[in-house]
Amino acid sequence: MLGLARRILGNAADAEDAVQEAMLRVWTHAPRWQPLAAFRTWLTRIVVNLCLDRKRRAPWVELEAAGEIVDPTPDAAEQAEQSERDRSVAKATAELPERQRAAIVLTYGDGMSNAQVAEILDTTVSAVETLLVRAKQNLRRALDSTGEEDS
Fold first, then answer.
1. Which domains does the chain have, with CATH numbers?
2. pTM of the model as a whole
3. Tens digit of pLDDT for each residue in 94-144?
4. Coil/strand/helix, residue 71
């Protein structure tokens, strides 16, 4: 759940807070849980909703204001290239609309099926498929424009 929260929020401290709050809610509302869905689906939905709520709030500090994060092991050129690709993808993913970002993270980051993602996002499988298509198109455009700027 922490990895999921980090991918949605992009901030380790906020992710830890969101997961901790989710676990507290699970603990306090456990008697109300009805096994209509898998426990993991219920917990994931709580985490996703808390993360989306946090993303809607005004940010404390812009990521650019925090400065460049230094990689402690920039030994090989290949590692540097992979790191750059990862940053580009993470940045492009962070700029996606909330529901598209959640669909991408849940599907490709956590390996969930479209049906599971639909249940978590409280929508239909068809809507999830549409979110994924649009998210991939937006990511492709963002990453293509990043590559053109480097040339």
1. 1-61 (no CATH), 77-151 (1.10.10.10)
2. 0.50
3. 899 999 999 999 998 888 999 999 999 999 999 999 999 999 999 999 888
4. coil
